[in-house]
Amino acid sequence: MLTRRHFIVTTATLFSAPMAAPVFADTWPTNAQKAAWDSEITPPNFDLETSNPWGLHPRFLPQRVVAKDGLVPGDIHVDAVARYLYHIEEGGTAMRYGVAIARGSLYEPGTYSIKRKVSWPHWQPTQNMIDRDPELYADIADGMEPGPENALGSRALYLFVGERDTYLRIHGTPSPRSIGGRASSGCVRMVMAHINELYPRVQVGSTAFLYSAEESVTAQS
């Protein structure tokens, strides 16, 4: 397990300043529909680092920061305490985005492989989610079609351990005001306009490191 202590030790030098998959036959949106949705969720005159119609705290707006030499370009690092996702770039920089993480013990730190990417994905709650919150998920137990109200938003990166789909995702959210908090049932959430910019730069096969959250932090003398 990647601990918060491990991240604290390394981050100062890293950065500065169980269910079947749903079947949705013949329901994939057309390219024209995807483009229309992208336009709908992207602010007018969008600037990645300054546009903020969602009312995010300024520190959660994307910005480019310095990365430690030797980090693998293309990999993702998620600081669950600061609520930042870093995407490592060529040339010693990283793009930093604000994120939301899972509630309580639902957050699962670890090392994952990104083995699938989907633009405007379908979504279906897991059986564990349905069992845990039956009233919340009763009406959507069979899944949600793609669109701006879909829980996975506009883009999703699928996290695997080996060949096993963990059902954890890094994805857009129709609830951008959750960014900076603990809100999901396991996934890492991003503003849809932000993950749209990140998505084409993430390659299948890249590694995502999810570091531990507050509960694992202990006082150190």
Tell me about this structure.
A hairpin with a 4-residue loop joins β2 and β3 (84-88). The strands form two sheets. The chain has a nine-stranded mixed sheet with strand order 1-4-3-2-11-6-7-8-10. Strands 5-9 form a two-stranded parallel ribbon. It is an alpha/beta fold and 221 residues long. It has one domain (4-18, 30-216): Beta Barrel (L,D-transpeptidase catalytic domain-like). The radius of gyration is 17 Å and the shape is globular. Residues 3-13, 15-23 and 217-221 have low confidence and may be disordered. It has helices at residues 4-14, 31-41, 127-132, 134-137, 192-198, and strands at residues 63-66, 76-79, 84-88, 93-98, 101-102, 110-119, 155-161, 164-173, 182-184, 188-191, 207-210.
Features:
221 residues; disordered C terminus; 27% strand; alpha/beta; 5 helices; L,D-transpeptidase catalytic domain-like; globular; two-stranded parallel sheet; 9-stranded mixed beta sheet; 18% helix
